[in-house]
Amino acid sequence: MTGGPGVLAAEPLTLADVEDRARAVLAPEVYDFVAGGSGDESTLNANRAAFDRCHLVPRVLSGAATADTTTTLLGVPASMPVAVAPMAFHSVVHPDGEPAVSRAAAAAGIPFTAATLASRPLDELAAADGALFLQLYWLRDRARTEWLIDEAERLGARALILTVDVPFMGRRLRDLRNGFAVPAHAAPVNLPDAQRGAGQSVGGHAAAVIDPTLSWSDLEWLRRRTRLPLVLKGVLDPADARRAVDLGADGLVVSNHGGRQLDGAVPSLLALPAIRAEVGDACEVLLDSGVRSGTDVLRALALGASGVLLGRPVLWGLASAGEAGVTGALELLRTEIEVAMALAGAPHVAAAGRLGVRWAFATPEREDP
Asked: Is 257 noted as a catalytic residue in this protein?
């Protein structure tokens, strides 16, 4: 969160500047829908506080003049250790919606994650010719869940990301106070007409379509049902991480849903080291919730993440200038990652994962290698 709109710089210099531009053009209730969290927003704010209290220990004399940000995420080559996070209803913030974001991600050389509750159909997003992941909610309509899986496979999606921390939506007080509802032009087209929820509150729509009884036995079924790499998003407990791997998960996203589900949940960055320690190299571990700079990406890598999912800053870029705004935000982030890695003495992503960190408050910390 920024401190509010003020005088805008000629060009955005940070992702916070991109947010300021979005806030200047969005209706207040739409800005709140994207920016807000659940409850008192303590987890939303704690996500940022955790990053701010995580201090990198740079290395010197690496001998490298530049930093190479290229890597692979879930087996997909990526120009930087970043993928676009799954987010619903892109068309709420800009009429070009998800296709604009998918094109910008493809041009930037990073994966794009299509959401179950996307405003535009999957085939339009696959047409961007970039790496496509599909985020899956466990729907009450099992036939529709299977259709989404089949569509992902047909369209060449590279991974299936099952969100496991939303049996129902958290109480998002900004939306409740604003009376925010899903506008017709942004309704989720991946659902049948009767389930699209135009005019409903986001929480009411989610309650109508998401099955809250999702369990480990369903994960076993899903593992058998798809040949795609399977990733669980919303894992914060090491025991859950271990069980997921034992049942065949190929990846985990350490996430508290950007502070939009259980208010008071542990910040994702603080949960990351224990989960990486628990699963080791048995699966890929990504992080989301609170990433706002290239230094944040480097912090996540140093604590064991393979990469991050970037959420709200992508929507701020879309809101401010459509596809060009997303492209600008991603280019800015890439520059920040390159600079942070070079200054930290990490000439490549693997070296970034070996950096030490120190915390500004009492917590288990990763020692220098």
From this structure: yes
